[in-house]
């Protein structure tokens, strides 16, 4: 027993500088996002608010607050966040329920936000952090039993309440997929077994098919528009077709920064879900590939930090954030290029959205906190 305790003490954390490569890529993406946001949104902002910089000003404020949150989170020991895992997880479920109360607010035809005084946010964003934190602590506590199929299923069931509430109360398919995907990736990385994930994958695909084919007529119409966008060019597929026009007209090197035509009312709300299409139109194929490579570099840094984390909790926190960013980037670009049916999902760090930036920066702070300690034997 004494020898075992001595061996456990040898796995300690050596304090090092935070990962400045990751910090650089975060700041670069934020700055690039602000430039592209202004280029993309200035026309819409002028028409709606008589101020071409309206969206830019709002996003700059959210970015500044996000940076403060990130550096504050990075300064603290990440074990403090794990202690709050249950609280954050339960709070996310409560906030999702509050969407259907008078605190809930509707925007663009969807009721997915709640407002507390002057502050409004999407509970689905909190649910993403909640599932990362609650799974990190539970995976750590059950690390010696992760080869057991029943344990894997029990842990995955933690994702069911937020996924169900997101689907039923906010009708937000993309966020539900991201939350379930985060859980699946974290458990896949932590578990030595592969068979449970085949079962989980098949079950999830079957449930998704049921939701799509036996759900609302609106979802079925989106699938039909995805399969044959020309037939829905004036309705459901209008945004997708205009997005494809933008990508195609950009060519290899693009029309030049600020020279997009599709942003002039052709791509609705281009500063949100479809901003990648405007990037491709103005900066071309090279610009689009460059952004993808930047995200790939970010994910690689996440992998390095997770591998060198001083304990399993830190590693799982980083894996959860990695899964969130990777899934969201892939889904956004897939939607913009009509690889999958259209579903509202933003491009991390670049699309307009104060809530998204604040919660993303909180996640980045957790990762930077983990990066300050390396495992030593």
Give a quick account of the main beta sheet: strands, pairing sense, barrel closure: 3 strands, antiparallel
Share of residues in helices:
55-70%
- The average pLDDT score comes to 86
Total helical segments = 15
Q: Number of DSSP strands?
A: 5
Overall body shape: globular
Structural class designation = mainly alpha
Low-confidence stretches: 1-11
User: What topology, given as strand order, has the largest sheet?
Assistant: 2-3-4
Q: Approximately what portion of the residues adopt beta-strand conformation?
A: 5-15%
What are the secondary-structure elements, in order, as H or E? HEHHHHEEEHHHHHHHHHHE
Question: What's the Cα radius of gyration?
Answer: 21 Å
What does the model show?
It contains 15 helices and five strands. The protein has helices at residues 2-10, 20-49, 54-75, 79-83, 85-98, 123-141, 149-156, 160-170, 173-190, 195-213, 217-227, 238-250, 275-308, 312-336, 354-371, and strands spanning 12-15, 104-107, 110-116, 119-121, 373-376. Helix 5 (85-98) runs antiparallel to helix 6 (123-141), helix 5 runs parallel beside helix 8 and helix 13 packs antiparallel against helix 14 (312-336). Mean pLDDT is 86; it is low at 1-11.
List the helices and strands and how they pair.
Elements: H1 2-10, E1 12-15, H2 20-49, H3 54-75, H4 79-83, H5 85-98, E2 104-107, E3 110-116, E4 119-121, H6 123-141, H7 149-156, H8 160-170, H9 173-190, H10 195-213, H11 217-227, H12 238-250, H13 275-308, H14 312-336, H15 354-371, E5 373-376
Antiparallel strand pairs: 1-5, 2-3, 3-4
